[in-house]
Structure formats: structure tokens, C-alpha cells
## 1
Amino acid sequence: MNELPIQASRTAAISKKSLRLFGGLLLACLVMGGGVGYYYWRLTRPPVVPAFSLKCNDPAVERVIENAHQEVAKEPNSDKAWGRLGMVLFAHGFFSEAQTCLAQASDLAPHEPRWAYLRALLVLQEDRTAGLDLLEHTAILANSPAFVHARLAEELFENGRFDEAAEHYHQALHSSPNDPRALLGLGRLALQRGDLQESLGYLKKSTVSAPTARVPHALLAEVHFRMGKLAAADQEKRTAAELPEEQYWPDPYYDQATDLQFTVDARIDRASRLLHQGKADETVRALSELIQEYPDAAAPRAALGRVFIYLKDWPAAERALTEATERNKDHLKYQCDLGYVLMRQQRFSEAAECYRKAVSLKPGHALAHYFLAQCLMHSKDQGGAIEELRKAANCKPDFADAFRELGRLLAESGAKAEATAALEQAVQLAPEDQTARRLLQSVH
Amino acid sequence: MKRLLLLVLAIPPLALCVVGGCGPSASSIPVEVADGPAWFADVTREVELDFVHEVGTVSLEKYFLPHLMGSGAALFDYDNDGRLDIYLIQNGGPKSGAVNRLYHQEANGHFTDVTSGSGLGITGYGMGVAIGDVNNDGLPDVVVTEYGGIRLFLNNGNGTFTEITKEAGLDNPQWATSANFVDYDRDGWLDLVVVNYVDYDPTVICTGKGDQERAYCHPKSFPGSVTKLYHNLGLPRGSNRQAVRFADVTLTSGLGKLPGPGLGVVCADFDGDGWPDIFVANDAHANHLWINQHNGTFKEEGVQRGLAYNSMGSPQGNMGIALGDVDGNGLFDLFVTHLTEETNTLWKQNPRGLFQDLTGPARLLRAQWRGTGFGTTFGDFDQDGHLDLALVNGRVSRAKTIQDGSLPAFWQPYGERNQLFANETNGFFRDISSANPDFCGAPRVARGLACGDTNGDGALDLLVTNVAGAAQLFRNVAPHRGHWLLVRALEPDLGGRYAYGATVRVNAGGRQWVGWVNPGQSYLCSNDPRVHFGLGKLEQADSFEVIWPNGDKESFPGGPADHEVTLNHGRGKK
């Protein structure tokens, strides 16, 4: 028996096996090491600043975006820089690019709810499921404010996840007791369950916390109606109708983003808001700056004209609106505003020209016909005025003032039957108009 | 050892997965992808329907808003030969050569353009169409709505129509959109409700949010206009059939008190008192529900009855309207289409007269894609006894990414895909859009959707209008369809016309289905006036019940399924 060769072959076999094993282990270690190294490199490398190629007609907007972009290039590890760029892009409608930046900001500051929240709002527009996931993720962050919970609750409600919605409304109340949006949401949930009494309770509290919010009153109208309390329902509906239709709930994260809008229209809006806050000088200053930046644009001049109308500075309004119409003579509103300013300066024939231009631009413009009628009345052209008032009433059947003035002129001209019909319609449209009632009585 | 080696070799890929973060993504709940056979096939060419919508002479770069909002279509049998014909609306403007077109359906199912000489080949900024017999002579007449007015055409019965707008006293200088015929005072004569959109100022220039390029204006840039109501004064016996007269009762009825801007309208008995009410879908504003007070006036109760806003209390896009009983409780529900960024809304009625937004629980939020919806309709397409839902989409603002390059360049950013939802049972829906490539595959800028059985097989087909594109006819090819009935509810004493506003109930197999005679639904469209029922496996209807527009209630004996049934007012059992 030849043992040596057997032993040798066994040894060789064992060596080959060991080699293979060793090779496999070495390979595995290399791959693992590579993986760990890649992970570490990903964690520590600075984020890549994307190059956006954004088409934008407004150089001022391009500048704002570019400035924010450069901040990111200077501080690529700053979540605030990424977040600001994201918000600027968000504000100007570049949603996909905004998502990229907000995602990066979130990665850099995973505990900051602001970036995750804004990203969720964007994603919701395209993919409700993914957006809802992101909102849920935002809500579990430690310092998530009440409105995030309320927003999440609304999405859950819309998806029919009522118990979860209730949970988040309660969380909102926990951090912000008497939060009207959360109270409204709980009222809505109770209504959905058919618990009208509970719904009533929540909704009434919501109206106390937010007296100018329309939605709680609208829902109260519905609840009262379901309870058979028709008068109360009508009252709540009337209250709701007097409040602004746009339901605005404070959303500081969203507001922060939209405040970064730098379009002409957005800047005009912001200036108008200053005016309503009583800051007229600042408004004029802001609009004057805008006019200097955009010398060929009519809109800032027209906006300035409207500010002077509000301030009753007729000569200044006339100057601004004349400049606006010189830059855009076919703009209906500019012509109407200029006509109004001229009327207030008793220059009725010039005003009439503006209104004639307006109705040539839009034959069905009821207000232009109405004011043209006013100008013609001052020029003692009663027939012309009646004709224009007829057109105004025909274009806009709910134009109570047109019917009243038409009735007045027809009565003066002796057309009693037609006057009566017009005044009856005026009274029907505006029962509180005592002038129309008096005129109607005098015709009778 | 081998196992150990395998294990070791397996670790790195797993490790990479862990370090690389290839776990499940944020979109963790998959939306079902529909499988199954298609329900609709595009037969436009096959039936020789060759209409292409035009938006005419005002340069597209002016972003003239009426271009974006029209136009509609009608499915109606103008010559009473038993086959549905088609009327399609153009939007080229009065100075364009683009005329509305009338197509006659021949016995072989093909359509012949019979516009020339018909009297209906008019130009204009055409929006929608309403069909109704205004003089009770048994012939359906036509109202066309336009940016700048409405026009009434009387059916002469010989393939021609005569315009009698001025003589009839119809004067609406506003931007008219959808219209409905409704006998609101139950006097036997069809009255007309016309929804008006915005008091549009074409000199206002609007820009898109991101690129600041010129764009179509949002309707909130303009004040809304009121819905108008015209009372049909009727014709005395023996008078000239052309002496139709309407009185504008907008103000006296109360509708003049609240402006829109209205896009869709549907007339039905919303509070169960037997009198028709008027629901108006207002774009970006609260919807209006005008409840008939039985004395020629209406009271607005949209807020109180839960139809003004969505579940969040917000006004939404509100364009097209579908009406039907999706959950089988005997009460109709309402579906209204909105913008891509919003969600379409399904309001379920329960109890009678009260509505709740139950879009989410109905699983309509689980859509494979979203769109800006316009025309929409409920219909039992597979005839399983449950109403399904179809809607057509097309944007009103430019999308950032273009879905398909086959549209004309200007319209590519507005193209979206249509959607189809199967009602699995009692008002719970499943998105089957991706299983219907003909109807839902290609992005278009769709607007009108009309529904009806165009080929007499008892199944509902769909007619779609597209902005600056070809009108399309989709034939129902759903396999294994259930049994069906098509009911004509007629008024023999009123010229034999359809009983607009009638409620029809079918009792079969211990179950009851309810339908309503009302072709005026969807967006800018008029549909097949027959009431369609899918009966599933049931082969026999046990009985029919009809509540006629004047309040009469009658029952009729049942009969075999898979037939067209005619029920005449006054011939049933009271």
C-alpha cells in the first residue's frame, strides 16, 4: 500500500481548500472594507451643489436665486443655506429643484422640521402617498409645531384615517391649546361621525379662537342645518359669507418661503400689504424703487396710482396712471382707474374718454359703462347716460347701483313704468339701499 | 465550509445595502397597478368621426382664456331614427372658418358630417351645448353657449335647425359655459339655466409662477358672473311652433344675487321634495345649490347641505359634475372635478338632502396619477350593478415636465391622461386607468366627456373632446358585461319628449336601482337622455317605478333584461 502519495494528495487537497477559503475571506474583507469606506466617504463628503439651469424671464428673480445658490456653494454643509435656496426656489415655482435642496437640508439637519415640512408640501402636490409619509416623518420630530400636526391631521382626514387624524389634532392642541385649526378639525371629525353636539362644541370654540376664520362658521351652518335649526344655520352662513373666502391658517414655515418671492407681482402685493398696515410712506417708497428697477413696466406705476387713489392724492394718482397707460394703453383696469381719478378732479369729458376706451377694449364691462354714464350725466347727456346704464345692467344683472341710477334717470325723463321696473330690481338686489326705496316710492 | 463561504460572500452585498441605504423608499405604500382587460377602445377612425377642435385666430401667445376652457359636445338623436348623433363645438371665434359640426349616425354605425345646410354650422368661441325640446313637438332643440352669449336653434324635423335666439328673448352677453334644460316650475315646458363664468378682461396679462413667462390667468383674477335662469313661457295650443319665448327670471328667481364663476351645472331634486333644484360648480369658489322654493324662487343652501366646499372647508377648482347613486342607497351622489394640485371630490348623499365629502374613504385618492379634471360621468360600464367613474383631464397651467411630445408644441405642457375607476362595490373604487390605454394612455388637453350607447349594444360608450385636438369616440368593449336595461321615460302629452327630471327605479332580484332622466351633466356636454342600468347577473326586471317631473308616481311591469324599455307618463299604474 502506498500511503505517501495518498497523504500527499490529501495535503494538496487541504491546501487548495484552505487557499480557496482564504481567498474568499480576503475578498469578503476587501468588499466589506470598501463598503464601510464608501459609507464613511458618503457621510463626510460635502454635498454636491447642483447646477440649475432655470429659465426665468425676470432678472431680479434670477439674481435672488443665484445669490442663494452662491451661499450654498460657500457653505455646502449648511442646512440653512440649502434650506434658503430651497425656499427661494419654492417661492418662485421651481418645485422639483426646491425638493432637491430641501431634501439636502433635511439630510444635513434631520431634526429640523422646517425643511422636511416644506419638502412634504411639495411632494404632496405630486404624490399624496409619499407626501403623507413625509408629513408623518416631520410630525414625529421632537420640536414639530402645532400647525405641522394640524396639517398632517388634515391629510389623514382626507384619506379617511380618522382615528389617526384625531390623534394629531389632539397633539396640536397639546402644544397649542385652543388652536382653532385643531378645534375645527375635531369638529369636522365629530360631524363625520354624526356626533353633532360634540361637533358644535368644537366649532364654537374654534370661532372664538379665530373669529375671522370662515370655515368654522360654514361648518356650523351645516351642523345647525342637520340639527334642524334652520335659522341658526342661515345666521352662520351669513357670517361665513361676510368673511374672506380664502381660508388662511398661520403657517410660519410656508410664509417664510413665500416671503422670499421676488417677482414684480409679489413685490407689489407686499407693498399693498404695507399700505393696509398703515405704512403708506413705505409703500410709496417700495413701489418707487420697483419703478426705477423696471422703467418700462406699467404694473408698478399702476400700483402706485392705486396707492395714491387710496390716499386721495388725485394729481399724483393721475401722473402714475398716465405713465402706466402710456406703457400699456390697452389695459382695461388702467384706463378705468385713470378715468376714476379724472372724475374725482371733475374732469368728466377726459374721464369719459378713458371709459370709452375701456368699453372698446371690453364691450361687456359693466363698471366702465356705469362710470361712463356718470360722466355723461355731468355733461348733461341724459340720453347717453341712460343708454350706458342699460348696458351696465344688462352686462351684470346683479349690479344694484346701475339699476338704481337707471331708475332715477328714467323717472326724471318721464319713463315711469321702466323706472319702476329698474328700481324694483335695485331694491330686490340691495334691500338695504334706502335711496332706491325712496326713489321707488316717489315714482309710485 | 461551503456554507460558511457562501455566507461570507453574501455579507458584503447585504452590508452594502445597509450602508448604502437601499431600504424601502419614502413611498412605502404602493398604489395598485391595474391589470385586466380594457373596457374601452378608440373607434374614432373606424366610425369616420373626423372632427378636429380649433382655437382659431386670436394668437395663442395672447393666452386668451376662452381658448383653454372649451369646448363640449352632445350625444342626441336629432332625427329620432333611434341612433345617437353627435354635435361638436368649435372655439375658433366668429371670424374663423371653424364651424360647429353635426354628425348623423348611419345604420352601419358610421358618422356622416351633415353640417352643411343644417343651420348648426356656426362659428364663435363655442363652449358648450344643451339639448332639450323647448316647444314640445317631440324634436330635440339645441342651445349653444359661447364666450359672449348663447344661441337657440329650433329643430325643424327635416335635418335642419333655425336660430331663434333673439325672437325667443334669450340675451346673455356674458361668458356662458354649461347649460341645462329643466322644468323648474313643473308647468310642462322646459326652462333653461345658463351658467356664466368670469367677467373676463382680455387685456390682463398673467405670468407663470416659476418662469414668469406669459400664462393663462387664474379665474380669481376676474369677478364671477351670475347664473341666468330663463322661464319658458310656453306655447298656446295651435300657435306657431317657432313662437317660443323665454323670460329672463334671473333676478326674480334669486339666482342673480350670487355670482359664480360657474363652469358646471346639474339639475335634480336635491332635497327630495319633488321639485328640481340647481347645482352650480363654481371655479375656485363655493359651489351653489339653489333649492327650489316652489314659487319661482330659489334659496341658496350649498353651505348648509355640505356641497359648497370640500371636507377641509376649501373651495376648489369645481369644473365638471357627475351625478349617480354609487353606493346603492337610492340617493344620488355627486362627483366634481378639480385641479391637479387638488383632489376631485365625491360627495355622498346620506341622509336625503345632506352631503359629505367621502372622497378618501371611497378610495378615490388611490389614483395612479392626478390631473385637472373636466368632463366626468358615472356609468355602469361593466354592467355589474355598480356605477363606475370616468373623467377626462387637461391642465390649465403649464406642467414642468412634458408627458408626451405628440401634442402640438404649444399644448404639450397641458397634456394629461384621462382616468377610469371601477366601482368594486357600493361606492368603493379601484383605479383601472392603466388597464385602459386607449382611453387613458395618451396625454391630451381634454375637456368634454359625453356618455351614451352609441351602437345599440346596451353598453355605455364615451365621447371625448380635446382642445386643439381630435374628438374621440371610445366604444365599450368590457368583456363579460352583465345584463342591462336602457329606459326611455317619455311624456306623450308633451310631444313625446323625454321627461327631464324624472326618477326611474328598477326592481330586480330583491334589489333596487335608481336613475335620473337628465342629459345635462359632465362639463359643457349633453349626454344620452336614456337611463342606463347594469343588472349584473339578473336577467329580468321585476318592475319599474317612475316619479314624473310633475310629481306623479307610476309603476310599470318588469320584463327581460338586455332591452330598451319605453315608459310613458300616464300609461303606468298609479
Note: Chain A touches chain B through 80 residues (CB under 8 Å).
## 2
Amino acid sequence: MRMIWLIASREYLENVRTKGFWITILIFPVIFIGIYFLQSVLRDATPTRYYLLIDQSGKYEQAVDVAIERNHQRRVLQTFVQYLLDNRIEADLELTSANASTAADKFVDGVDANQVAALDDWLSNGGLDFALVMATPYLKPNSPPFKQPENQFLLADLPDEVDISAPPANIVKALRPYLTGQKSIGSDDNSGPLFALILIPKNVDEFISRPRATPQAPNPNSGIQYWASNLTDSRLPDAIANSINAEIREQEYEKLELNIELVRNIQRTRMPLNQLDPSAALGEEAVSMADTFRQFAPIGFVYLMFISLMQNVQYLLSNTVEEKSNRIIEVLLASVTAGELMMGKLVGIGLAGLTTIAVWLLSFYLFITLYDSSDTELISQILEVVLSSDLIPWFVFYYFAGYALYSGIFLAIGSLCNTLKEAQAMMTPMIMIQVVPLATMFFIVLDPNNTLVRIMSWFPLFTPYVMMNRAAANPPLFDVIGTTIMLIASIILVLWMSGKIFKHGVLRTGQPPKIIELFRLFKLSK
Amino acid sequence: MPDSVLRLENVIKTYGDFTAVDGISLNIPKGSIYGFLGPNGAGKTTTIRMILGIIKPTSGTVSILGSPYALDVRNRIGYLPEEKGLYKKMKVWAVIQYFAMLKGMQKKQAKDQAFSLLEKYGLKDFAESKVEALSKGMGQKVQVLSAVAHEPELIILDEPFSGLDPINQSVLEELINDMASNGQTVIFSTHVMQHAERLCDHILLITKGKKVFDGTIKEAKATVSRRVIVATKNDITQLRKLPGIASISETDSDFPDEWQLDISDSFDPQEILRFCAEKKLGLSRFEFTEPSLHDVFVHLVGDDAREHQFR
């Protein structure tokens, strides 16, 4: 026992002293926090974009303006919802559409349910001014004032050389340098590249397509022309298309002499949909955000398990290969038994892995407690939900089981190889196997008790991952007990076998043994 | 025998069809310096691994410090393997401490011992360096120290001299002599005969897994006949008339007209000089030397060793 402990503590200290260990430990929180800040910076940093509108038909200019204004108002609305979530008195994750009590909650819920309808309400009620009045009673006393987002799209001044009555092709030709960024548009202190040109030709109405009309050959010059170098940001063209279509439809209603007000009201009618959980207690069936988190939490655990196990077993492997290629192993085996050496390694490196997880969790915890914002508050609430769930014991069990199983295998591989290169070649299939439960973890969470998933759970190399993944969905007791027995049996088998291989492998030099030789080894050593 | 620290009886190790060690028996008395000699691939390392219980003999018995299992008495044994290696990232003193602790020493005691050994054998300045910063020879010295830091009763060194420069070789010889005079038993394997000749009380000579000689250096030398080297341009065959001369053969050296005369145990080499003066045989060289261990080695295993080399 003393020997195991001595070997374990050396392995642990050596591991912890390497640069690689600290890089792994630090890179995770750094990337996590980095992505968090980068996202919020990117969200706020979208630059003001200039557009030009040339409406030769003279009919749709207003519709485009409305589209851009709606786009702006939608951003105001979204920012306001976020502001409301940040600053309302009681942030309650157990909120559902059924138990939303205050006007503010209802408002948030309405936006969640149907953003288009909510935006219509927002605009017809008077937008921000009304919303601020409505929400004020529900805000915390020291809430900061609401900051409106700036206009994202600005109408640029038409360059002098462009004649708006010229044929569309000529206009595009004249504006092309602005669109490609060769020339800047706008006044001196407020200039930039032209983001988009919306060109509505005189004869645009000829291209309106109606149901039951004879299909026309596609023609890039038909309809409205939206010119932009940025092909990925579809918000503006979508908004314009929607708005102009709405305008056209209104014209059609008018032609048919329908009451437009009535049509609009009909479009905003909606039926609420409540998600209910049949396994919950009477009166608590409504599915809240917390319930959803509980269902998805296993994904996080599976991922954490994968990263940590990969790190550990790789270290175990390279460390065994090092000792073997250095022939240190021979001195060690003259002092301790192969079993003691193996156990010492497993314990020492396992502890190093736990240290990594502990540091990650600690830095995560420090981040959400020290950096105060609505997002971190949300995360800490999620964390609370997860910690109070019964997932933690599952994780602890499957983490150790997975570690014992995989480290046994990797240790055996390491003891058979003389160089890291050899070891890596033998390791690749093992990594591929682990990728399977990782790649399927989202599907498993969505359908945790389906037949294929249940079969997967019985394969011991998948069991820790897949069963962890299913943990939140109350898997059948038969699966839990059966796979656990299988898992423990295979851990014992793997450790026993790798003990044998280890003992023979470590003193081996030259080529790794053939499969047949390994079989002979087990036969002989019985 | 109460004074025996190690006894092997008809130990055999086979790997499939290949017999690495073929029926070795030996008995090593306490406090001696014992040399394992033999050409490459003779089975020295395999024998040592069996002694240490790292591998099991196919048949035969091992008794080490009174026990059949080396692991039972591991704290009383020190071992330096043939291929040298240490943890590269550890500090020199920490490596010695670690291996001493694996042999049962207490932490503090092991650290003190590490520093005092490093000081004694000229490595004091490197105590705080990492192993990877050491030269190969220095690393090897550190490894020797880590093998003996716990002051074991029996020390087994597999090729301890290979890779050391002449100065460090003599430092190691000094260390081995120190340990022997301290009552510790030292077994080492080598194929450099000079070390064995200077250090050993006893030698074991094996080739192809078989024992060819086991005994003192003096006994070993007795297996080779006494010889006189002479160089002459005259007819050497006249010397055949002398009764004590067993055979005359050309030497291996590049010099022409150089001859080796094997003489019987009781024959006085002066007779040769007297005979030559009488017969007016002009000698340009006359040399009477004790056979070296090298000669013994070549005599006993020469053909086997060469065969191995060209295989």
C-alpha cells in the first residue's frame, strides 16, 4: 500500500509539474470566458451599415422604410426584453406560460411565443415609451436606465454622379465601386462602404407572382434588386421582402374591398401551447425552463467526462511509454510488483485528472460569482438546478468507472509499445470508439430510451457515456442494473488482463506482440 | 552455507524454442565482488532478471538473501539495469530520494543520503539540476547512486561501466570497492575484462546461456597455459627440442616472425634464453607474461563470441 501511494504521489506531482498540464487546465476557462466576452463584443459591435434606396416605381419607398424601421424596433424590443430579464425584481426560472403572473412576465412570454405578433403589439402600443411605463413597477429599484440600440441601417446620400431615372443597369454600374468598397459613401465624418443597394425598377409590378399563374422562367432582373457584397447577413433583404409583400397584399385586399384592420387582427390571433410533463406531480406538470435544463444537463457531463478522460489516459499512455523506453520500468519492477506499479499509476494520474476538473469547476464558479451579469446569473441558476438534481452521483460513478475501464486499456497499450508513435497508432481506434457516444449525445438526450440507445448502453466501452447521457430521463431499472453489472465485470476483466499484459509488455523490447501471442499470454499465466 | 547471499541451482529460461539460460548454478559468498562475464547475448541480463524476480525461470531454483523471491527481500537489494534511464524531468536529488524510498527508506533520511552521495562522488553541483540536463555519463553515475542509496546488502550492476569515461570508470571502481569493504556484496556484469580483473574476487563466465567457468581470477588464469612471445628471423622450429615447450604458433599481431610458445607449468622460461644463446638464435623480442583475463576470455569463449558477432 505504501508503494502504491509513493508511486501515485510521484506520478501526481510529476504530472502536475508539466507545462502541458497547466496549459490544459488554463485553456478551458480561458477559452470559455474568451468566447463569452467575444460573443457579447461581437453582438454590440456590428457597425452601422449604409444603404441606398432607388425606387423608380415610386410605390414601395415607404414599405422599405417601414421594413428598416421594424428591423430597428425589433432590436429595441429584443434589447428591452433582455433589459427586463436583467433587472426585474424576481427572476424565476420555474416560470411557464401558464403561471406568468405579472405584466412584465406576460410580456416576456409573449415575445418568446411569437415575435412577429409581439412586434406588432409593441409598435401599435407605442413601442418603447409604453413598454418602459408598463415595466417600471417590476424593475429593481436601482436598475440602470434603458439604453436603446443604435440604428443598424442608415440611408446614405445619393452620390451626385448617379441619375435615378437612368436604366437600372446604368445605376448599378455607377454604384458598383461603392458596393465593392472601393469608394466610400456618406459625408466625411460619417462615411463607410455602401452595404446595400435596393433598386426597384419602374415596371416592378409586372413581376408580382400569383398562385395559379403560369410559371415564368427565372430572371435575375425581375422584381426588386437587392445588391450587396455581404451574402451572409440576410436580415435586411428578408425584412424588405416581407414588408413589400405585406404592402402588395394590402393592395390586393383593397382591390377586393376587404377590411384591412380586420385582416390584421385575424393575423394576430393565436392559441397558446403548453408543454406538460406527465411524470411531474399534479399541478406542476407545466414544463419550465429548469426542467428543460435538467433534461439537457447530461450533455455537459458527458462532454466533461470525455475531455477529462482523454487527457488522463493520454498522459498515462505517454508516461508508461516513457518509463518503458527509458528502461526505468526495470528498476521499478525490482522494487515493486507490476500490480503495485499499475495501481500507483492509475491512482496518481486519476488524482491529476480530478485536479483538472476541480480547477475547471472552481474557475467556472469564480467567474459566475465574481462577474455579475444576467448571463452569469442565469448560468448560476442553471448550475443550482443541475447540482440539486440527482445527476451528480451518476456522474461521479460513471466518471470513475470510465476512468478505470479506459485507463486499463490504455495502460496495456502503453506497455506494449516502445515509442509514442507506435502507441498513438494503437490508440486511434480507441479514440474513434469514444467519439461514437460523443457524436450521438444530442440525439440520445432527445430520445434517451429508444431501442438503439438502449442497445448502445450495454456495450461496456459506451456504458459510462451513454448511461450518463440518459441519466436525466429515468432509464428503466433493468438497464441501469444490467449495464452496471456489465460495466463492473468488464472493468475487473480489463484491469486483470491489462495487469497481465502490463507485466509482460513492460519488459518487452522490439515489435509489439501479435494478437495470437497475447492470447497465449493469458493461457500461460492462468 | 550460511555466508551465501545468492544461490542458483540449475536455472533454465526458455523462450519458445530458444534457450536463453541453460542450467546455470552458482553460489556467491557474502562480501565478495563477483563478475558476470560473457559475450553479448550470452544470457547475463536474463540471469540477472531471474535473480531479481523480474522474470520467472522456466525451471531451477533461486535463493537470494535466504529467500526464494527477490521481492520479499527487495529492500536489501540494489539494482542497476543494463539500459540506463531516469525520469528526465525530475531533479537529481529527488530521483535518488525516490528510488531509495521505493526501497523502504524514510523521506528525510533518503534526501540526506542523496545529498551526501552526490557530494562524495563529485556531483554536488548538479543536485538541483534536472536529469535531462545531465550528460549521459553523469546520468549513469546518478543512476548508480540511486541503486545503492539505501545501502543494500546485495548490489547487482548490469554493465555499469559502459558509457563512462576512464575517470568516471575509476570513480565507479572506487564506489564498488567502498561497498565491498563495507561488507556489501557486489555482482556486476561486464565484457570489459580489465574491470573484472581489477575488482573481482570471483568471476562467472557464461556463453550461449551455459556456464563455462566459475571461480577465482587465479583459477581462471590457470585455465590458460603459460606463454612466451619471441621474435626471430631464424628457424624457430629448433625450440621444439626443449622438453617444456608444448606448442609453437604464430601470434595474431601484425609483426612478422613473432611466435607464441606455450610452456608447461614447471618450465622455467630462462631455459629458452639459454637455449637461444647456445644455438646462436638471434632474438629481437623476448616476453614472458602472465595470461590476462582477456586471454582467458578469448580462450574460453572466443569462437562463440565471434559467431555471435557475425550472425
Note: Chain A touches chain B at residues 3, 6-7, 10, 14, 17-18, 322, 325-328, 330-337, 507 (CB under 8 Å).
